[in-house]
Amino acid sequence: MILPIVAYGNPVLRKVAEEIGPDYPGLKELIANMWETMYASNGVGLAAPQINKSIRLFVVDSVQIFEAMEDEEEKQEYPGDEGAKKVFINAYVKELNGKPWAYNEGCLSIPKIREDITRAESVTIEYEDENFQTHTDTYTGITARVILHEYDHIEGKLFIDHLPALKRQLLKRKLNDISSGKIKVDYKMSFSR
């Protein structure tokens, strides 16, 4: 089932999400719905707070980014990164490494706004998969960026928080339009009024 994506302005996007256990009600269905919602919205990641659930859960599919790249040269820009398609539950960043780099990011909860955001080149993250097996993995490049973007969501942060105060001030009108529902998107959204 395709779920509505919570728009900027909803308080759930600013809460630090709660851990969950294997007994979380309807978890398997929720994860399936998150994948369906993410793909229907042309996203590469989706965090539970974006569907109005303040839990430490997000899904990522950066494989599709590499599949969409036209030439091998473009793929060479991200050595060691072939993408990942994974479920992350109760994730915690353990280490950030590498040279910080900027990349143009957007967010399904903040439609029609894209900005260059600087993030670390690699992330080591501890998480549980959908079977609650614990993993500690290191990701680099675009995959690390997508994971960090989604991780921010479960920490109550948004990609615009990484912008300088002046830049955020310049976006204020657009952000107000989003939170008041004065925006059209081609996916299901939930606006708090």
Automatic annotation (TrEMBL):
Pfam families: Pep_deformylase. CDD domains: Pep_deformylase (cd00487). It comes from the Bacteria. Its cofactor is Fe(2+). Keywords: Hydrolase, Iron, Metal-binding, Protein biosynthesis. Belongs to the polypeptide deformylase family. This is Peptide deformylase. It comes from Niabella yanshanensis.
